[in-house]
Design a protein that fits this description.
single chain; about 250 residues; mainly alpha; Arc Repressor Mutant, subunit A; Four Helix Bundle (Hemerythrin (Met), subunit A); 2 domains; two-stranded antiparallel sheet; elongated
Length: about 250
Amino acid sequence: MKDRDSGEQPATSRVAGVAEVLGRRIAEGRYPPDSTLPTEPELADALGVGRNAVREAVKMLAGKGLLRTSRRAGTIVQPHAEWNLLDPDLLSWSLGSPQARERLLDELMDLRWMIEPEVAAKAARRATTVQCLRMWEAFEAMERERDDPVASIDADILFHRRLFEAADSRLLLSVFTAFSVLLRVNFATANEHDNAFVSNLEEHKAVLEAVQRRDADGAAAAMRKLLTNNRADIERVRAQSRGEMAQV
């Protein structure tokens, strides 16, 4: 599909592709905060697209808090404080750098510690019979897929989503949807530690059983234990990785 410059709308995939290229460059620091992007014609020429595709991509990134435009100064990268870090695209782009990846995982673990025990407590107070059954189905999928590194993580994420759904808060569920990209990386990293997934099954079950018996304090405590062990698994994986690098 041709660009608007030639009388037609640009292809959505082309705009998304330009946004991804620029978004990754910004997230990785190639265009640091307060720097100015190349001009629209320069970017169009460098990326092999029409100017309108660049223009629409810039609008998309501005909506994510990455860019702002000024007639005098051009297109400027926003400070990190303005970035919408719960945007799934931005989270994905930010994971390209090992340093950014580690920092985001640390921040995710802090966020989970602040939110998920209360989510578990709310679920214990509010979960319906159907919602409890859905959590059991997700847990059974975790058990069934324990030897599949991809399917087991899918089931784990579904378990936590079902827990957030049972807490009956649209805002909390929106937060979960946003950070599920990072949650997948969190689980994959933790599972690099031997038997981490299998040992965590009992902790998930403890959360679920507390929710089912309407024990809000017990559900929160079980979730704290689960999160503590998740952090420990990740730290062990990091320590092992640093040790291997030191031997090279």
